[in-house]
Specification:
mainly alpha
Length: 227
């Protein structure tokens, strides 16, 4: 007779799975912290009266360092610090680098054009560069880097006049016979125009020079129509 051999078999025990309990939406909303900001709106600004204007609002509970009361009525200029009215260091660095770069471009262009046809008669290409580079390096650059409003104004005006002079020399080189190609001075005219425009924009945006305002045009008489 064959005896039965006992075999141990592991029977898996079912693990209960937790069932998620639904949370009401009202409880979630109440758990979120709320911040109340009191904004006083004048009665005249209520809907139906007139368009809302940002400077008319009164903020009570906001940080005063974050508020800019004159942001809408007195926008800051590009080249001056709105708090002190002094030219910022970043803008001074930008216009001085532009001034030095323009003088370097004039010298590089003259040397390149002369290297194409080196001769004594062709040395006239250095006329504009030899005049502009010392003016930009030795005269206008110290004025622009001084930070003084009058000095910066004079420096920008001198740089604009220098750009016009060099542009005229490039124009003469394109009109009259020259050993070098006409494309190089023609491109130089564009560079002078870009420099002149940039210096003029800096001069106007910094409010160093204020253009005169035109007088108001007369109003036309009102003619009532019969219909």
């Amino acid at each position: 007779m064959i005896e039965a051999i006992p075999i141990d078999v592991a029977v898996p025990v079912p693990v209960p799975v937790p069932v998620p309990v639904p949370v009401p939406v009202d409880d979630i909303i109440e758990a979120i912290p709320q911040v109340n900001i009191d904004i006083d709106i004048p009665p005249a600004l209520l809907p139906g009266t007139r368009p809302l204007s940002a400077p008319d609002f009164v903020f009570d509970n906001l940080n005063p360092d974050m508020a800019v009361p004159d942001a809408f009525t007195h926008p800051p200029t590009i080249l001056t610090d709105p708090a002190t009215g002094v030219l910022t260091d970043g803008i001074i660095l930008a216009i001085t680098q532009e001034n030095i770069g323009l003088g370097a471009v004039f010298l590089i262009e003259a040397a390149y054009s002369f290297s194409l046809k080196p001769s004594l008669a062709h040395a006239k290409v250095f006329i504009g560069a030899l005049f502009a580079a010392p003016v930009l390096f030795l005269f206008t650059n110290p004025l622009l880097s001084s930070g003084d409003r009058q000095g910066v104004t004079l420096g920008l005006e001198a740089a604009m006049a220098t750009s016009v002079f060099v542009a005229l020399t490039y124009l003469l080189r394109t009109l009259f016979p020259s050993p070098s190609s006409k494309e190089v001075p023609a491109f130089g005219i564009l560079v002078c125009f870009a420099g002149f425009s940039s210096f003029a924009q800096n001069l106007l945006q910094s409010e160093l020079v204020v253009l005169p305002s035109l007088p108001g045009l007369p109003s036309l008489p009102h003619i009532p129509l019969p219909f």
